[in-house]
Amino acid sequence: MNQISSSSGVGLVNYSLSEIQAQCRKAARGAGLAWGLAEEAGMACRWLASFDLPGPRVLAELLRLNDGKPYETLRPASLDGNWEALGGRLCPLIAGATLSDIAAERVAGHHVELAAVAFPMLLLPFLGLAAKQHGVAQELRCNCTRVTCLPDGISISGDVTLLQTAHARHVVCVGAERAEPDHKPSAQSRAIDASAWATLEFFAHRTYVPATDASRAGAGSTLSDDQ
Predict the structure, then answer these.
(1) What pLDDT is stored for residue 50 in this prediction?
(2) pTM of the full predicted structure?
(3) 216: how many CB neighbours lie within 10 A of its CB?
(4) What residue segments make up the domains of the chain, in order of their start?
């Protein structure tokens, strides 16, 4: 079964992909992510929205989940063996950025296993970028679902909504055989759940006020700009 599902909430509002990218970037920064990771979050949500996948809603849930948690508890403690986070669940944005850094190794056949990651759907854009840059398919396997990211689209086997879970116990990312995509990106606007957009606005609002010790603590900005 191939299944793509966008927002399931009541009250949908259309936004352009550019608006989605900008809002998600600001929300991620307001939640305390370093500028580089905030940029990655915006691009990731735009990529997912282009396939009509609920990137903004998943990001909103991730930001709520990780609000105030230190960066050190969300990143892979080691890149040897299964990737694990000291805090129990890897942040998919941090893990995804790390996957991008070692994309050449995966192209050569190296695979990565992640033990416990939140919202694995947010890993897909990083695999999609690697596929486009290297011209080699990249596959994510999780919860009986496989998504193959190709230079010109994605191919889905299983129920992609299972990648929206807040706690995936095991995820595998690996170079894959080239296939024909069954979904291609679209430049159209997307309907976004109004409640998810409100959550993004809540976090984005933190970027509009002067930083204080109290606001930094509330924003979870222990996610260091040095990372």
Answers:
(1) 96
(2) 0.86
(3) 14
(4) 14-68+195-227, 77-181
